[in-house]
Each structure stands twice: as structure tokens, then as C-alpha cells.
Amino acid sequence: MAFTIEFVSPENILYSGEGTMVTARTRGGGDIAFLPGHEPFIGSLQTGEVKVTETGGDMKSFAVRGGFVSVTGEKVTVLSDLAVPVGDIDVAAARSDLAAAESALAADELDPFATADKKWAELRLTMSGTTPDS
Amino acid sequence: MPGGAERVLRRRIGSVKNTKKITRAMELIAATRVARAQQRANAARPYAEQLTGVIENLAAGGADVDHPLLRQVENPQKVCWVVCAGDRGLAGPYNSAVIRSAEREMMAHRSGGGDYKIITVGRKPKDYFTFRGYDIDASFMGFTDNPTYENAREIARRVRELFDSGEVDQVELVYTEFVSLGTQQPVVRRFLPLESTEVMAEQGGGDAAAIAGFSFEPSPEGVLEDLLPQYVEARLFAALLDAAASEHANRQRAMKAATENAEDLITKLAREMNRARQASITTEIMEIVGGAAALEEDDEVAA
Hints:
The complex is a heterodimer of chains A (134) and B (303). Chain A is an alpha+beta fold.
């Protein structure tokens, strides 16, 4: 049994396909996996990784900057203002974002936007297989 | 001097023809850009619909929180206007229509003793309000013909700073609504505080019918808290896309009119030029005939 999976960003639909499992990390709830027939669910996502197992058994991984996941029995929709497939992560951009966020935090360590930016940059670096420090 | 008027007219026709080529090219460019802007607006629709769908489900689940973005103020004194127009002119009444409706509202508010703030999007409103001596809080420009979601985020960030800190009680969004290719109209919309979730759900027209019985994580209130900022950004982004499509549609129309005017002018000038040429030819013939007749008279006298 499979269900439809869609990643929707404000500018377009990033990904749409059939799959058998989706794993995401919700705010406060930790990792959660959805299988077809899951009860209706709406969750607020952390900046983190969302994994999709496609019908053929292929795994796809996306870095998402927050957002929501909405699940019905037949469909999983991930709404995120930024979701990047792991292969498309721009490491150089992530590095410069990290540097910018860190210098903003040095000026005001409670800046909520810079904290979020830093987390997002670190996630992209970790997921692309590089360490934030190198 | 015969031929002088003709030469002047010929040169003018040449320059009008060049102008016509330029306006025609701009018309065609604008036409393709309208199509692209409409496509982008369509591509952005699923996100807005899904977001509204989540709100519908939240409303059905009875979530309503005391979120700062929902904080209503009785009789707002400090109002912020976000004026979205273009970076460039040559778009007919597009820029001035938006600016005028913003200024009219602002005047009315100020005459009632209220205070104002202005955030401009696009170079034209910035130039206008700076020239008129208004106090501009922030201005964004350089992207109005092709806005990205990042642009909307930046603007939303500034708007929320103002609103969250209580510097303004209300935010109004002024932009041009793209009704159809033939109709665009400047509108002033209440942007912040947001309506209650029930009203948002009703107005949004999301595609999914609300299904009660969703479970929420961390909680309906928690989801709503995360969702409202996204909703603000998405609404702003939708307005920017509408404004961009309207700008191109207006420019296309203005350039079409300019091309037609150039054609009319060319016809008129060509007629004038032909008349001038005919006049000079007639004069020359009269001179030759007159000269020949005078020579004949001389011969007769000599004979």
C-alpha cells in the first residue's frame, strides 16, 4: 500500500510522488513516522530532516526549514518555506549563511532570526556530509 | 528653400518609427512577463491553499489562542501602510494609482489625529513619498517585477518587528489586485492584526474540506503559533505576485497605446510630408513654365 507524498513550498511544488513511509521530526514530539492509513495528523516541524521511502524502496532525504506536515490516510503533505533535497544542498551558501548568522549572534545572542538561520545552516552542512567547522 | 520642410518631416518620421520599435518591443516583453507572472502566481497557490486548509482544520478543532498577531486594538492610532508598487515607470497609471489610494487613506487617518508609518516596496513609491516629505520607515526595492519568497520574508520581518513591539496597532497593505488580464485594481487591505481563525478559514477557500478529528502535535495552539507567521509571509508573497502581474499587464497596455499613437503620428506626418513635397514640385513646375513663357515673349519681341 502506498500514499501520495507532496512537498509544497510557497513558490512551487518541490516534489510529488508515491511512497510507503515518511519520517519527520515534529516540534516537541520527536521523530515520527507515517505509514499509509495513518490517522489524520497535523504537526509543526522542526528544522531538520524529512525522509521519504518511495514505492520502489528508494530513500529520499530533504532538509526542511520548519514548516508543517499534514497527514491523511492517503496523502502526506509537507508545507515548508524551504525544503532542499539532500543532493541539491549548496555547501558554500550554507557556510556563508552560517558565518553571517554567527556574526549576528555575536552582536545580539538572543536574536531569534539569527538563531534560526544558524540552525538551518548547520543542518544543511551536517546533511551534506561536511562538518560545520571545517 | 524648397525641400526644407520635407527634410525636417522625414527626419521626424524616422525618429517616431524608432520610438515605435522600442515601444513595440517593450509591449512584447511585458506580454511574456505577464504570462510568467501568472504562472508563478498559480504555482504559489497550492501552498496558500494547504496553509488555509490547515487553518480550517485548526478552526474545526477549536484552536484559538491569544497570539500577538491576532491582538486587536480598539480605535488604532498608529497605522503602518505597506505600499507595493513598481521599480520602473512606463506602466501607465499603475504606480500612481497605488500611491494615490495609499496617500488618500493616510490623509484621512492623519486628519483624524492618527499617526502613520510607511514601508515602501518598489522604487517609485519611495521616490514619491520621499519627495513629499513623508517619513519612510523602511523601503525595499529591486525585485518588484519578479519577487521571490525571500523578498516577502524580509518585508514580513520588518512589518512584524513594528507590530510585535507595539510601535504600530494596525498594518494596511496597499497593492494592485490582478483580477484578470484586462482588469487590475489598487486595493487597500487590512493585513495585521489577522482575523480570527474562523474568518481566515472562511475567506481562504482552501481546497480540502475540513475534516474534524485531526490530531495535532505539539498541540492545536502550538501549531497555530507556528503557522500564523508563515501565513503572514504567504499573504505578503501573494500580494507581491499579484502586484508583479499587474505591473506587467499595465505596462503591456501602456506600450500598446504608445505603439498605436506612434502609428497614427507616422501616418499624419507622412501625409504632411507628401503635401510639402507636392507643393515644392508644383512650385518648381510653375517656375519652369513661367520661365519658358518669359523666353517665348523675348523671342517674339526680337522677331
